[in-house]
Amino acid sequence: MTSFLWHRVWPAPEGLPARQVYAWIVDEDARVLLLEMPGGWNLPGGTPEDFDGDWLATLEREVLEEADVTVRDVVPLGYQEVRPEAGKPFAQLRVAARVDQWLPATPDPDNGQVYPRVWVPLGEAAERLGWGDPGHAQAAAAAQVALTLYGFAAAAPIAQGDRAASTPVMQLV
Quick count: other Cβ atoms within 10 Å of Cβ 20? Predict the structure, then answer.
């Protein structure tokens, strides 16, 4: 069984390699950008490549490749500790961001697919993603950033569900 443990702290510990970075891209209507991918919905983001300088370079590249947007005002939210049934634990970094440029949809260079981009109410995103309590905690953290740093008042009801930094949230799959 694989476990997912959300931590509302940054950065991930040094001994826990960051193998993925994903963005909760939010707008002034308290919606988040999701991609419809084979197998279900996902946030834009992905895996670092050798040529990426850091997690931000990975995020910017992956969001452009998958969602055809550029981002601004990127704010770290925390990390999700993944403990696979087989293999070593790793971190999935999570950030909040805003759209800088919305570009025409193009095929993902990794597989040639064009992913439909959908704005989903932030309060419904965790259910659509199927991420359970960790997803709800991440959505609340993104809403908190949207409210306090971006000034998006519509995010206030979701931001009230933000969990304390010292309270990890777990899901078993």
Answer: 20
